[in-house]
């Protein structure tokens, strides 16, 4: 029998682990928000409509940061639809997921949920159908103390103190043909640069994440990432990475080795970041935000998983290898967002009006 060997030497530490490496992701998708974290009619709902049983499980996971509100959803989202009195908010047709969006959960509600869940917010801005000015307005709404149009708009319904959101994503998967407002890398890079410039004029303390390729499977990787960073290197701190792994045609060994593939993906992205730094004679390293990752089961034979056991032990093992890949590269991967937190691909699942429970991937 082959045996694995691990050698530990404190003198060869590569870097500290940022607590944000163990983050998650909440998107307006499926039952993640509605009937997931938010269900006003549930017996365990609090005064704001958030499910107490779900909050308890989220706090058990100790999620340090949660990305919001998307994902593909954000590229068609107008954040101003989700503020003000709920009865006055418009119900919009969500072009990303082809459903009605009530906007009952918006910026302020999610910030309040995050406080209850003891997690920070990583806010994404719409650079698909919106642009730099709308992104700057959202920063003003969230972070500016007061005395301006958007900061006073926040204060008027009862949020006098700024939300102080530090980490922001500049759009989502903008190289994807499925994305609303898909862009070429040069066009996106220029938009990201301008958005970052305006956002930092509102709040110079924010940290910004530029979109990398949607995954290393994309034909655009890593050329997309290189072109984008050439345009916006000076204004951003992070480059995003996304990946999902599922078993293919019964290839169990390959599936169990997913962490090695993820490790290679990370190292290639680091090489691109360092090349741009060298080319621009820059002084800063671009860090990585692996802000979508998980084991994927949605395309499997429906007979393989029952309603309450959508993930199995094999998935939990692979999930653990993916976390270890992030840890092995903790000197450059500073943010990690497992997607999604509740339902769909979550470690937590719920029944409408019923129970919430842990999936196998909850434990690693």
Rg on CA atoms, Å: 20 Å
The end-to-end span amounts to 26 Å
CATH class: Alpha Beta
Which term fits the overall shape?
A: globular
Description:
This protein is an alpha/beta fold. It has a single domain (19-362), classed as Alpha-Beta Barrel (TIM Barrel). The protein contains nine helices and twelve strands. The chain has helices spanning 52-61, 107-117, 132-143, 149-155, 185-202, 223-232, 252-256, 258-279, 313-328, and strands spanning 23-25, 65-68, 92-94, 99-101, 120-125, 167-170, 207-210, 238-245, 287-295, 333-339, 348-350, 356-358. The strands form three sheets. It has an eight-stranded parallel beta barrel, surrounded by six helices. The radius of gyration is 20 Å and the shape is globular.
Tags for this entry?
12 strands; 364 residues; TIM Barrel; alpha/beta; two-stranded antiparallel sheet
Question: What is the compact description of this entry?
Answer:
30% of the residues lie in helices and 16% in strands. It is an alpha/beta fold and 364 residues long. It has a single domain (19-362), classed as TIM Barrel, CATH 3.20.20.80.
């Amino acid at each position: 029998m082959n045996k694995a060997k691990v050698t530990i030497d404190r003198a060869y530490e590569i870097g500290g682990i940022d607590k944000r490496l163990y983050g998650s992701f909440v998107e307006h998708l499926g039952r993640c928000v509605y009937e997931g974290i938010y269900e006003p009619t549930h017996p365990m709902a609090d005064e704001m409509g958030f499910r107490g049983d779900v909050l308890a499980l989220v706090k058990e996971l100790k999620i340090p940061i949660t990305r919001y509100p998307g994902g593909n959803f954000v590229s068609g989202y107008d954040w101003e639809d989700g503020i003000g009195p709920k009865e006055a908010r418009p119900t919009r047709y969500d072009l990303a997921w082809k459903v009605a969006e009530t906007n009952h959960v918006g910026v302020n509600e999610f910030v309040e949920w995050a406080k209850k869940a003891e997690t920070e917010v990583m806010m994404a801005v719409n650079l698909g159908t919106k642009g730099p000015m709308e992104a700057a307005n959202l920063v003003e709404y969230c972070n500016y103390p007061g005395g301006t149009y958007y900061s006073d708009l926040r204060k008027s319904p009862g949020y006098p103190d700024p939300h102080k959101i530090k980490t922001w994503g500049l759009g989502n998967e903008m190289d994807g043909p499925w994305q609303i407002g898909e862009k070429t890398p040069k066009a996106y890079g220029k938009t990201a640069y301008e958005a970052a410039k305006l956002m930092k004029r509102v709040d110079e303390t924010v940290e910004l994440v530029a979109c990398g390729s949607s995954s290393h499977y994309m034909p655009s990787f890593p050329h997309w990432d290189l072109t984008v960073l050439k345009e916006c290197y000076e204004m951003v701190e992070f480059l995003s990475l996304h990946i999902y792994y599922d078993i293919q045609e019964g290839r169990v060994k390959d599936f169990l080795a997913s962490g090695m593939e993820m490790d290679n993906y990370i190292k290639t992205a680091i090489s691109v970041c360092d090349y741009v730094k060298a080319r621009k004679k820059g002084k800063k390293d671009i860090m990585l935000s692996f802000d979508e990752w998980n084991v994927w089961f949605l395309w499997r034979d429906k007979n393989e998983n029952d309603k309450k056991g959508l993930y199995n032990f094999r998935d939990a093992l692979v999930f653990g290898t993916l976390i270890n890949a992030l840890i092995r590269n903790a000197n450059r991967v500073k943010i990690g967002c497992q997607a999604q937190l509740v339902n769909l691909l979550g470690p937590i699942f719920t029944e409408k009006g019923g129970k919430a429970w842990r999936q196998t991937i909850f434990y690693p």
